[in-house]
Automatic annotation (TrEMBL):
<protein>
    <submittedName>
        <fullName>Zinc finger MYM-type protein 1</fullName>
    </submittedName>
</protein>
<dbReference type="Pfam" id="PF14291">
    <property type="entry name" value="DUF4371"/>
</dbReference>
<dbReference type="InterPro" id="IPR012337">
    <property type="entry name" value="RNaseH-like_sf"/>
</dbReference>
<dbReference type="InterPro" id="IPR025398">
    <property type="entry name" value="DUF4371"/>
</dbReference>
<feature type="domain" description="DUF4371">
    <location>
        <begin position="19"/>
        <end position="132"/>
    </location>
</feature>
């Protein structure tokens, strides 16, 4: 009776049904995500032993997320790494991250006692030998060997080596000052770009990233290959009578600092 009533009197509306609304698309994505994660967790259980890689990073909306990656051996005897998900805003304390991980593995029916390796950065909340995350995970799985992140360790070596002398510290401080000055204004950046367009590869200056070990190389390379053009850009700015006095003074000051024998030698 109800089916006949809907057929005869229901408002069919206009157009065709596409099932492409945002709600439906989100549901499709959620279902596909579940299938992928279920497939990965089944392979992990089949392999039995695994390692975990965890890092906490903010996304573009400044929301802190705990990234979880699992490393295990597949049937073909190849080691693979699989991303399992983000955990939002779990906190930076080792205890908070431990509870988040334990709950995550429990929800996915993965036995953490089978964990044989763990890798994080060198921050004390992660690497601490008594109350760090690695120490807390070892209480659950005593054979979970901790291996510090190689990239982060190398970055610390480069950072400490660069800051071993006052000259090195001052050099990288000045290189960052160059980037901050030009990136702080679209007009100043445009002036720099016009000068750098004359270089063979159309280079651009780089930001000194504290967490990327290769950033110091990128900064030095771009500075070395575009050194004359950067000086020309600074000179154009501080000679421009339309610029504010403070900007002219800053440009002249940076020009003087980097147009020195010590800076050029480094």
């Amino acid at each position: 009776f109800i089916a006949n009533h809907i057929t005869n009197f229901g408002n069919k509306g206009r157009g065709n049904v596409s099932y492409l609304s945002s709600t439906i698309c989100d549901e499709f994505i959620s279902l596909m995500s579940k299938l992928v994660i279920d497939n990965i967790t089944n392979k992990i259980k089949k392999s039995k032993y695994f390692s975990i890689v965890v890092d906490s990073t903010p996304d573009i909306t400044k929301i802190d997320q705990l990234t979880i990656i699992i490393r295990y051996i597949e049937d073909n005897n190849y080691a693979v790494e699989r991303f399992l998900g983000f955990l939002k805003s779990v906190g930076h304390k080792a205890e908070d991250m431990e509870n988040a991980l334990l709950n995550f593995f429990t929800d996915h029916s993965i036995d953490l006692k089978n964990c044989r390796g763990q890798s994080y950065d060198n921050a004390s909340n992660m690497s601490g030998i008594y109350n760090g995350l690695q120490a807390r995970i070892k209480r659950t799985s005593k054979q979970a060997l901790y291996v510090p992140c190689a990239a982060h360790s190398l970055n610390l070596v480069g950072q400490n080596a660069a800051e071993a002398t006052s000259e090195g510290t001052r050099f990288f401080y000045n290189t960052q000052m160059i980037y901050n000055f030009f990136s702080g204004s679209t007009s100043r950046w445009e002036t720099l770009e016009k000068c750098l367009d004359k270089t063979p590869d159309s280079l651009t200056i780089k930001n000194l990233c504290k967490t990327r070990w290769s950033s110091r190389y990128d900064v030095c390379k771009s500075l070395n290959e575009g050194y004359k053009e950067i000086l020309q850009s600074l000179e154009k700015i501080y000679l421009d009578k339309n610029q504010r006095p403070a900007i002219c003074h800053e440009a002249r000051s940076i020009h003087k600092k980097i147009n020195s024998l010590e800076f050029s030698f480094l």
